[in-house]
């Protein structure tokens, strides 16, 4: 199983690539809505990408109140 | 009318395949204009289906297939009316959209939904009238109605129950969560899972294959395997209308329409 830090790093890389944001501009504690300049529909896109990448199913209600990469990573890590 | 270009949708017929494209920003929300144009399509179907063996429904919007009913229109139009008038308006809308959905569901054509992105609420219900669902891997499916204090109103529950196990229906309905196309294929909802941006191309290839078979046999097979749950569809309208009058629904709609939260599309 990958470490939590590795999962976080993969999420940051994937988000940067998918939304065409320079990776170096993203940090673990960023609000991903603001950092990626995305709305809720695009957040669902990110969720789908992450589910495919990590081969997990993440019910979207588990993301209520989650807006930073670090917490998002911990939610995914708990399903790996 | 062999071709049509409207505000919400357009259609044309090519090589025996009708293509109905949804194209209203932001994500093909179904309000009065979309309903009227869907009614035009259904009125044109008797002529169109003489020239075709298949129908493909798809969206040209990048955001997805369809985000469902136009909740802003529903909320603001209800606000202008007395509760009883608003309830009558909702029932009329539902009866009209059910007539559209039932006609497409029963059409003597093989129908294919080519799906990507958001396929939520009424959009999911529109996809469910089709015989085959072809989804790209970025498609997501959801019935978010319960958080508004409602149930799906465009025929979603009876059709989902027709097509899937009741456990999956309850999960989608009662949690309001969305799931991706891989899961949708695993549970038997999606027949073909394809790469990002490939759903329409694959749907066209599938439609070409369908054209090789005897049309009357295909129609008989469809009629045999895909009954339309008319009684449950009528019950759904009654339950929806009963719920619509409750204060919690107006509060839920108001919260959604006026929301500035980052997550209005997440349950």
Q: Can you tag this structure with a few keywords?
A:
heterodimer; A: 80 residues; mainly alpha; Non-ribosomal Peptide Synthetase Peptidyl Carrier Protein, Chain A; 55% helix; B: 267 residues; alpha/beta; 2-enoyl-CoA Hydratase, Chain A, domain 1; 4-stranded mixed β-sheet; 11 helices
Please tell me about this protein's structure:
The complex is a heterodimer of chains A (80) and B (267). By secondary structure, chain A is an all-alpha fold. Chain A contains 4 helices and no strands. The mean pLDDT of chain A is 90. With 267 residues, chain B is α/β, with parallel strands linked by helices. Chain B has one domain: Alpha-Beta Complex (2-enoyl-CoA Hydratase, Chain A, domain 1). Chain B is 49% helix and 17% strand. Chain B is built from 11 helices and 11 strands. Chain B has a 7-stranded mixed β-sheet with strand order 1-2-3-4-6-8-11, sandwiched between helices. Chain B has a 4-stranded mixed β-sheet with strand order 5-7-9-10. In chain B, helix 1 packs parallel to helix 3, helix 2 packs antiparallel against helix 3 and helix 3 packs antiparallel against helix 10.
Q: What is the H level of CATH, i.e. the homologous superfamily of chain A?
A: ACP-like
Query: Share of helix among residues of chain B?
Result: 40-55%
CATH class annotation of chain A? Mainly Alpha
Would you identify the regions of chain A where 5 or more consecutive residues have pLDDT less than 50?
none
* Proportion in β-strands of chain A: under 5%
Low-confidence stretches of chain B: none
- Hey, which two chains have the biggest interface? A-B, 19 and 27 residues
CATH architectural designation of chain B:
Alpha-Beta Complex
Stated plainly, the CATH topology of chain A is called: Non-ribosomal Peptide Synthetase Peptidyl Carrier Protein, Chain A
Structural class of chain A: mainly alpha
Mean pLDDT of chain A: 90
Shape by Cα distribution of chain B: globular
Mean pLDDT of chain B: 92
Structural class of chain B: alpha/beta
CATH-level-4 superfamily name of chain B = 2-enoyl-CoA Hydratase, Chain A, domain 1
Which quaternary structure do these chains form? heterodimer
Mind telling me the CATH class of chain B?
Alpha Beta
Q: Report how far apart the termini of chain A are.
A: 7 Å
